[in-house]
Amino acid sequence: MNPEDLQKLVSMPMPYGKYKGRMLADLPGNYLTWFAREGFPKGELGRLLQLMHEIDHNGLSDLLRPLR
User: Fold this and answer.
1) What are residue 13's phi and psi, to 5 degrees?
2) Quick one: which of 3, 26, 41, 50 is 20 to 30 A from 61 by CA?
3) What is the Cα–Cα distance from 34 to 68, expressed in whole angstroms?
4) How far apart are CA 20 and CA 14, in angstroms?
């Protein structure tokens, strides 16, 4: 994990699906858990969704608050 990834979580919108347009940091936990079960997309998006899942799952969402 690097600081740029945390910044991307609060500034990058989900590009498709039910939550298209919502910032990655604002995706609901159950949606992130679904990706964890079914498989994250390839590339940067998948890596960022996986990071957000870990942050959400471990109750660390407050780490992103100063970046908003």
Assistant:
1) -80, 150
2) 41
3) 25
4) 5
Domain count, the chain: 1
How do residues 6-16 score in pLDDT, each as one tens digit?
999 999 999 99
- What φ, ψ does residue 18 adopt, rounded to 5°? -55, -35
**12, amino acid identity:** M
* Containing structural domain, residue 30: 3-67
Look at residue 63 and give its three-state secondary structure: helix
What count of other Cβ atoms lies within 10 Å of the Cβ of residue 6?
19
At residue 1, does pLDDT exceed 90? no
Identity (one letter) of the amino acid at 62? D
